[in-house]
Amino acid sequence: MNRHSMVVRVMCFVFFFNGVGLAAEDLRVLPETVDGIKTAEMMGQYLRGLARAQFEDWQEQYEQRKTPEQIAEYQKALRSKFIEAIGGLPERTPLNPQVTGVVARDGYRVEKVIFESQPKHYVTGALFVPDPGRFKPPYPGVIEPVGHSFTAKAREIYQSVGALLALNGIVALVFDPIDQGERGQMLSQWPALSGTRAHTNLGVGSMLLGRNTARFEIWDGMRAIDYLQSRSEVDPARIGCAGLSGGGTQTSYLMALDERIKVAAPACYLTNFERLLATIGPQDAEQNIFGQLAFGMDHADYIMMRAPNPTLICAATGDFFDISGTWTSFRYAKRLYSRMGFAERVDLIEHDGEHNYHKPLREATARWMMRWLLGKDEPITEPSIDLLSEEEIQCTPDGQVMSLPGARSTYDLNRDYEKKLAAHRKKLWATEDHAKLSDRVREITGIRALRELPQPRVVDLEVLKRDGHHIRKMILTPENGVNLPALMFEPRSVSRSVLYIHEAGKQTDAAPGGPIDNLVKSGRRVLAVDLRGTGETQPGTGRNLSGATGSDWKGVFTAYLLGRSYVGMRAEDVLVCARFLKEQCGEPVALMAVGSVGVPALHAAVLEPDLFSSVKLVRTLTSWSNVIELGRSVNQQVNAVHGALTTYDLPDLAGALADKLTIEEPLDALGQVMQ
């Protein structure tokens, strides 16, 4: 045995079958639980462990911010990191606003508004304007980004906030987010692809471009402020922002980034990441900013980044966003505001209810806005409000912005950017030194050089006998908390060795008479391995945010928050396993990857080509640019690398392998074989 491989041969598990007969053959390697953790929960547990270290570092950094200078420096740096992580912000272009109708109500009027946050990218909203006979302009203005609701601004709770503000002398712009209300972005899939499903679908392509779904929402919100400030009735110096749920997410982002927002009241969103990951886990695409745990941006930071501007946290006791995390974030924010001498400018209201814009929260929001924007602090009671029907509040002729002439969707905007990047990549790979490009690929993916990867701990288990060969069960542990179950198929006479990985797990092609069995019968030693999160460690089905995500979406988003990718982590698994196998046979190994694991396999082979004699990819995604082109994708989130398309696409890597690579049945982003 090669002395460089750290192999521990321990018979540590007892199985009911000894594998003598095929009928009794059991190819499972791991027990149902390892160290008390179910194998399907391995990646969640591992990633939460990494996150805990970030939480500790966050607390340490927080305690060091004492002086106004330190706080100001922290706020500036974190805003810069935030904007960088979402891919920067677009340039300001003409809003070209339209008022398509006006509905009068007692004490206010509602104007139906359309504006362009980017050229031909339309935003629909309802502008609630106080009766000038009761309140004298100019008025303060409040934007209300809507939460995850199919009817969006037409929904009662959102209209109620707008009307309540107008009845108390404040203009309110209640506007539809992308993929909700009148803003379906892919009408061919509407309404099935809407809300969180659509946001996450959009997020896959956006990630590849170094963007985030949140970028579109944040910019819509900033342009909504531009629109408010353009109105003669609105005092541009007195701007607020309030929203619930997904609107609470948008409010949190906007209040942290846009200094024009003087007063904010996010509702039913703020908790903290420690509790979020321990309870419901990360949610849809716009709620996860790339690397934010790594660069130190937790929920409390959204408040502290705007200190000492007034902020009210609206919360519900029974919310699925954990209330104890809400109070923890509030406490950190309160302490920071106190250090600055403005403790009274941050507060929290908790209502005994579940996730919703409850009447007491709406009233508290209106009172908070009045206190800081109008200088009035008095109880607010929401009256009975004559709300607009869905038809009355509709801004567009047929209810969808994408039916307007020349309308541009979020997918169109991503395609525009990808065209620019494609031209850049073509020139880059034609002129740049490939060694330097490989270094850039490492930097983007986080894949370490082979020399930096530790030798795996290896546990040999039982041996199964088959006709003409035997199968060794083993566990390879490349790092603490990650156990890769493996099967080593060993013929009597070995001609060469193959590392075999399959998206559905090592057992898929391992049955007698199957692809692996045929390789072994031809004299190949085959190491079949479940990469992390596949096969025996694949998470359960659970909730699927869209066809774009598989059952591992929570793990993928947790890794994303940590600034890591499954492609990078799985590529390192490939490298560790290939090195182990090479040390067994003394020569480079053939690599065979079936399905989605072909993407990390391709990365591994390009970055460490000396490990591999040949590479064969079967039914693997042909290109990331195809994800952008089609808009929709199926289970591609796990193989999305943030910002990869700014430098390379999968065909660029394939070209670097030249004659060493064979590709069979390449797939498009929808999982269809390309002709």
Q: Could you give a quick summary of the protein structure above?
A:
This protein is α/β, with parallel strands linked by helices. The chain has 18 helices and 20 strands.
Tell me what the structure shows.
By secondary structure, this protein is α/β, with parallel strands linked by helices. The protein folds into 2 domains: 246 residues, Rossmann fold, CATH 3.40.50.1820; 324 residues, Alpha/Beta hydrolase fold, catalytic domain (Rossmann fold, 3-Layer(aba) Sandwich), CATH 3.40.50.1820. It is 35% helix and 20% strand. It is built from 18 helices and 20 strands. The chain has a 9-stranded mixed beta sheet with strand order 1-13-14-15-17-16-18-19-20, with helices on both faces. Strands 4-5-6-8-7-9-10-11-12 form a 9-stranded mixed beta sheet, with helices on both faces. The protein has a two-stranded antiparallel sheet with strand order 2-3. The N terminus is likely disordered.
